[in-house]
Amino acid sequence: MFETIVALATPPSKSALALIRLSGDDCFKVVSKVFSKDLTDVKEKGIHYGYILEGEKQIDQVVLLAYVAPHSFTGENSVEIISHGSMLIVNQIIGLLLKSGARMATNGEFSSRAYLNGKIDLVQAEAINDMINATTEEAKDLSMVSLLGKTSKIFKPIKDEIGEILSHIEVNIDYPEYEDIEVTSKEEIINKCSKIVKDVNKLIEQGEKDRIYKEGVKIAIVGKPNVGKSSLLNVFLKEDKAIVTDIAGTTRDIVEGEFNLSGVPVHLYDTAGLRESTDVIEQIGISKAKKVIDEADLILFLVDDTGFDNELYSFIKDKKHLVVFSKADLISNKEKDKIYISAKENDISELVNRIKEELNIGEVTIKPSFNNTRQLGILKSMVMYLEQAIEDAKDNQPIDLISVNIMAAYNSSLDLLGENNKNDLTDEIFSRFCVGK
Fold it and tell me: Which of 358, 389, 406 lies at the terminal end of a domain, its last residue?
């Protein structure tokens, strides 16, 4: 039996309306203590209009949505109270519910209960959090596919195939005396496992491709002082975020901004000009710049008409980068295959196209994919276990030894969907969620 939990499901700020959620076997009893109508005998979902009361005092006029188990998001009796959006009123209502037997929900506890009660699997649960945190339409659409269960659906046949191989092996091991049992040969294991590895690798490839639409990419703008780094950042962000002057060393700290590049969230960093400096503050900025460079997915190495700095270039040449020539409006003879920009004239179209090519950003096709770190890590573990089973079979190892790695792959498939060790996973996964979700 789950105790009744309560939390605010809308942002904790003044608004027209607020929504307070409750879930638990006794939630109708808890709500009835503070509502103008008795809900303890509610048998089906419905909408109720009335008042939240503290004794005889009316606290607020509310609309209450009642959901009877198992026909609710959590699979439990649930209530949603729509009140006026004053945080004073919200806190009063939650306070009364706490006094009436509810307790405050922890991060993600509503989603956690939906998962534990079998209403959603773990991939769907993670998609809820991804939906909330999505910053582009593409990221949101990818999350919606998983939330609808389509991602889990394409994986279940793979899980079943591994289970089938394993069951045949186990029968052969446990009942060798029965001649009518189909014998699973090592060649058959090799063929079936090889097919599964191929299928899982396709999922990994698609997931890695789609991951950037959720996690985004980091791009650092690097160059000598006063080559136009801050001007370029301002053009990308379409705002005057970085200070632009003719004085070298104006940017002393990292200036950050985000923009949407064909559905990919780009985290852009304008770094301090890298040079020898005795200024303590500028030295700190240069040190931070070097750290950003190490973590960047792509570096834009900015060069102006003062010449190419070979010493500075040697610092980034082994990292993924593009050499960009700034102040193109001042250059009369442009060389073919070089990238030119003019921040003054907002002309960076050529650079944008090259960034897309370098990071393999194109039109996204929304399809089911496992695209977060946990999911991709499990898929890669499955491939590792199955490849080891294939090698063991090729080396003519005993069938029971081969089955060890196939069993490990099968357990990983259960972990992916959250069908294994539910309680162990709950705290780690759902602690990242919002309270009230």
Answer: 358
Handedness of CA 325, 331, 335, 340 (dihedral sign): positive
Of 73, 104, 121, the last residue of a domain is 121
37 shares its domain with 158: no
d(CA 4, CA 412): 33
∠ CA 83-87-92, rounded to 5°: 75
Distance CA 70, CA 299 (A): 52
- pTM attached to this predicted model: 0.78
The tokens for 344 are: 């003054």
Query: What confidence tens digit (pLDDT) does each residue in 375-432 have?
Result: 999 999 999 999 999 999 999 898 888 889 999 999 999 999 988 765 454 555 566 6
Residue 180 lies in a domain: yes
Residue 152: CB atoms within 10 A of its CB come to: 21
Alpha helices in 50-136 (DSSP H): 87-99, 109-116, 122-133
Across 161-254, the runs of DSSP E, i.e. the strands, are: 217-223
CA-CA distance, 253 to 123, in Å (whole number)?
Answer: 39
